[in-house]
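Could you help me review a protein record that somebody else here produced? What it holds is a sequence and that sequence's fold in token form. I need someone to confirm that the token line plausibly describes how this chain folds. Take the sequence as given and treat only the tokens as open to question. This is what I was given:
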Amino acid sequence: MGLMLGEIVDEYTIRIVDVFAMPQSGNSVSVEAVDPVYQTNMLEELKKTGRHEMVVGWYHSHPGFGCWLSGTDVNTQKSFEQLNPRTIGVVVDPIQSVKGKVVIDCFRLINPHILMLGQEPRQTTSNIGYLTKPTLTALVHGLNRNYYSIVINYRKNELEKNMLLNLHKDMWTNPLKLNDFHEQKKSSDETLEDIKKLTTLYNKNLRNEMKKTSEEILLENIGKIDAKKRIQNSVETLLNESILTCIDILCSYKECSLLTDDIRILSYCKNESKCFIKNFNNSEYSSITCICKKYLNESFFAGPDF
């Protein structure tokens, strides 16, 4: 449970820019009252940081129950609307929410005196499709009778869009991670078997196409596997995986070689200022500079002199 900060733009628009949680807890039966002292202190601290937004509503969650207002929520919303009739209440269901689709809804109470006078509450119509169809659970719990729903729209700037797009983006180091050799071999063998079968199918299709017209070929290929494109995709995938695996192996081998060379240098060069040591391929020599540290009992640091 918490409060929402923002501004009232016009008669039909409320912009919410930030929220902060309140030290209250609730259940299906009751909910604690909002602490006015905590709320006042929080707003004063926010003003010191340059945030001068006002409280435009409150939010809470219904884990697994859907978005609607219970009797307790209606009483809480009524206490907020006594301070400001434009205040709204937001309900979020984190259990039913999935990636890319958040189960959330916004409500405001219907004045019972208006219904007694025979007047209808404010209605929102749209031909664009912004209105969401209410659930049966919400209708049973008083939707469009005790409270009505408000359309929610998300407005993001360019920085927020880039941040959300890069949230689940793969890092450039992911392709360089070394896969398990047995799994890689199994995947490569399966790809080769698919290429073999697709090649046989492609040769068969070529022989059949030589005896038919272009229209007959076009009609026969509808809904069938395009062997040529499948072969191209399989070959590209196999080559990319093989090249990346070779690069990973070479990088791992180089790191192991440097680590082993450093160990051999530390055990061999104790008092010499410079020495030469062979690599594993016995074809190249690496120049190693040993810097003695007299103040550390003649211990030294050894590293490659590139």
